[in-house]
Amino acid sequence: MPMVIDCHGHYTTTPPGVGAWREAQKAAVDADPSHVGGRGTMRVSDDEIRDSIEQNQLRLQHERGADLTLFSPRASWMGHHIGNEHTSRFWSEHQNDLIRRVCDLFGDNFSPVCQLPQSPGAPIDGSVRELRRCVEEMGFVGCNVNPDPSGGRWDGPPLWDRYWWALWETMCELDVPAMIHVSMSCNEHFQTTGAHYLGAGTVAFNQALTSGFMAGFPGLRWIIPHGGGAVPYHWGRFEGMARDKGWDFEGLLDHVWFDTCVYHQRGIDLLLDVVPAANILFASEMVGAVRGADPATGHFYDDTKRYVDAAGIDDGARAAIFETNARRVFPRLEVPPASGARS
Question: Of the residues 136, 285, 323, 334, which is catalytic?
C-alpha cells in the first residue's frame, strides 16, 4: 500500500502559552499601531507540545490511517492584517519555531511548512527572508502564502503583480511549493471558513489563469486548498473562458494542485471525476475548520481518507493522490520509501 501523506495540517491545538503571547502582542499594537516590540519569550514546554499533539493530531492520524502530515501554523491565527510588519515578523518567527519543535519531537509523523510574515503595504522582502530561514536553516519543505493579507478587504496587489515576484523566484530557487491559504477575515461580508477560505482559492486560480504569469516561473508550484474552492465545480467555465480568451488552461495545470479537504463523498467524487488525478493531493485539515460528525453516516466530516478509499478510482490514481503526487510537489520532503509504508 502507498503511504498516506496529508498535505494540509495546522497546529490548531497549541498550548496556552502561544495564545497568551499573541494576546499580549495584540494588546500592544492596539494601544499603539506603530508598536515595534520584540520577539520576547513564548513559554511552551516540550511536554505541553507532546500532550497537545498526542491527544489530537497524532491520535487521529493513527485512527484514520494516515502516515505523515505536512504541518503548518494555524491558518486563522496568521492574522497578517493585525498590527504592522514587525508584529507579523515576530509572530511568524515564533510560530515557525514552534512547528519545527513539533517536527523534532514527532519526526516520523510531521514535516514542517511555514507561515510568512506578510503585512499589508509592507515589502515582500521580509517574507523572502523568513522563507530562506525556514528552508535553508530549519529544513522546512513548503510555505503558506496568503493572497490577501488585508484580512478580507482584497486591496493589495494581485498574485501576478511584480510585488510578488521575489517570493516566486525564491520559491523556485529553493524548490518549495506554496499552499495559497488566507487567514481570518475581518470583513463581515466574508465569514472566514465558509466564504473567505473557499473564495480565496477560486480567486487565486483565476488570477493565475487570466494573467498567465506562472509560465514565467517554470518551477513555481501552488496547492489550492479546500478542494480548489469553486474551481472543480465550474471547471467548464474556466476551461471555456480560457479557450475564448486564448489563455493556457492546460499549461496552468503544470503549476497548480488541489487538495481533498472536501467533506462529503459526493464532493470528493466530483473532484476526482473532474480534476486529473495527477493534480490532486490528499489532505484532511484535521483538527480544523469542521470538527463534528455527519449524522447521516456517523463519521467525522474531515475523515477524508474514507472518501478517497470509497471513490471509484483505480489503485494507480489512489496511490498518486495519497503519496506520489506529494513527493513531486514537495521534493524536499524526506519520508521513508513506499516499501517501508504501512502494509
Answer: 285
